[in-house]
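Sequence in, structure out.
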Amino acid sequence: KIAHPTFYLAPDPTKRTLTSSCCFLSRRALSKTPLTLALNQTQHCKQLEGLVSSQMQLCRSNLELMQTIIHAAKEVKKTCVKAFSDMRWNCSTIELAPNFQQDLERGTRESAFVHALSAATISHTIARACTTGDLPGCSCGPIPGEAPSPGYRWGGCADNLHYGVLMGSKFSDAPMKMKKSGSQANKLMHLHNSEVGRQVLKASLEMKCKCHGVSGSCSIKTCWRGLQELREIALDLKTKYLSATKVVHRPMGTRKQLVPKDIDIRPVQETELVYLQSSPDFCLQNEKLGSPGTQDRQCNKTSNGSDSCDLMCCGRGYNPYMDTVVERCHCKYHWCCYVTCKKCERMVERYVCK
C-alpha cells in the first residue's frame, strides 16, 4: 500500500496520530481533534505518529504549520462530500479512515480526485493562513509587478500562493518520494495527480477588489490577488475526475512512465487526472470493491443528471417520504434598518433509493 499522509485519532484520545493513507480526516478526527490543538514544542511532533522523516523535520521547524495542515485535512473531507453529493460515489468512505476501502486504496479515479483535492487544499489553507496572520513564517503575497488600470490600485493582502504551494508540496508529496512507499506506478500516479491539484489551485488565483469613494461611488478600487474558494476548486477537479485518463506503467525510452492505456501514442498530459484501476459502478454495497452502494440515498425525481432517481438508484426504484421544511416567511422591513421574519413549516415530498 502507498503511504499518504492523513490524520485520525487513535482510540486513546490522549495520543494524537497521523497515519499513512490519503490526505484527509476521518469522522473521529472531525469530532475529537480541536483546531486549537497545542503544538508549541518540538517534542510534540513525536506524538504525531506515522510521519516520514522529512515530514517530522518540517513539523519541528514549522510547528504552527501542523495546525494549519490539520485544518486543511478537515476541509478535504467536507469539500469532497459536498462536491460529490449528487454522484453514486459520494466520498463517504473517507469517514472510515484509517481503514479505507478499495475505492481509495487502489489507484482508482476516486483516489486520483482525493489526492488532487488534498494537495490543492493543503496549499490553499496555508496560503490563506499567511493572509490571516496565523503563520508567522509568511505574510501577504507579493504585489503584482504590472501597473494597475486607471481607477485601480494594488493593496489589501494577497493570498500567499507561492508559500502555500512550496510548503504544501513538501508535506503532501514526502511519503510518495520515499523508496519504500509502494509500487512505482502508484507513486507516479499520486505525485502526478497531486500536481494537477496544485495547478488547478494556481489557476484559481484571481483579482479581487474593494470599492472606495463618496456615497459608494467606487471611484477607486483597491485590488489584490486572491484564491477562489475550495468549493470552486473542487468542482474544477470534479470535471477532471469525470474525464480522467486510465494509464499503464510501461517502458518509454530509457525508463518506465505512465502512458494512456488506450492511446499510448502520446504522453500523459500535465493537466489531466490519471488512474490505474477501473472503479465499480457503486450501485450495490460491496466492501471488497469499496462500494458503499446507493441504497437509502436521496435522489431527485425531476432531474436528468447523475442525481436523478433512475441513475442514482441504478434502476432499482425509489421510495417517497414526506419531510418537514422550516423556512423564513412573512418578512417585514422596519425603518431603519432591520428585517423581521416568522418561521413557517411546509411538507415536501422526497425520494430515497430502494
